[in-house]
Specification:
The chain is of the alpha/beta class. Helices cover about 35% and strands about 20% of the residues. The two termini are about 35 Å apart.
Length: about 290
Amino acid sequence: MRAGFVAVIGRPNVGKSTLVNAMVGQKVSITSSRPNTTRHNVRGIVHRPGAQVVLVDTPGFHRPRTALGERLVEAAGASLEDVDVVVAVVDATAAIGPGDRLVVGRGAAAAGAQGGLLVAVNKVDVARPAQVLERLASVAEAVDEVAPGNDAEYFPLAAARGTGVDALVDAIVERLPEGPPYYPEAMVSDMPEALQVAELVREQLLKRAREELPHSIACRVTEWEWPRIRCEIVVERDSQKGIVIGRGGEVLKSVGMAVRAQLPPGAYLELFVRVEKHWQQRGEALDRLGY
């Protein structure tokens, strides 16, 4: 039996969560087109004959502008502690820049003692073939610069379609140490149910949000008496509260319907919106909101 932990790292919006979901085979992490959608280290569990892969989906490495951003980067860095394999994800449609070099450098440093680094060049389905080849060459050059002699492997893939994902999982399994599984076979994530619901609410809000609003939204479950769930939505300004509620409550109603469709039958979800000014910059607010 092989079993171990795998950190999936990268810049914001390169498709880390989509890749984790594709490897697990079902949704364990929320996704959106907005940068910094992932705010927690989310564990997804892949079960293979004779192997268990515990994936850690992480916030994107970026230059933080808020106290929240600083904590997200810290969480991403903490994910690299005590892992067996590191998967660094880069975007096939964007040039390899300083952020990618930081990612592969951190990944190579963490993975060095465990047998190297795996680099996933994602979104090859929307990139031109020439772009894919250029990204593969550029990221290999970047790895050689920051970690000379590192035994990295490269995987062009399209996480949204599942293309190339199995080959990456196979390579991960080969690098895992021998040992017993960490989780029962039926388990695909260890995220608490309350946090799962809060994240589903935030995912739906991100689909409907615009401009700066996505970064100003936080969600947390404040009451759980099944089948009744109370979820609080926090924004930073009164004008944002109106946007989240929508005319006649239409936005909040559509969010609630979309989330309930993903919950067990009979769930009763109550959504409330509250304004907490500048919560992204205040440490005590971040603590209270679970960041």
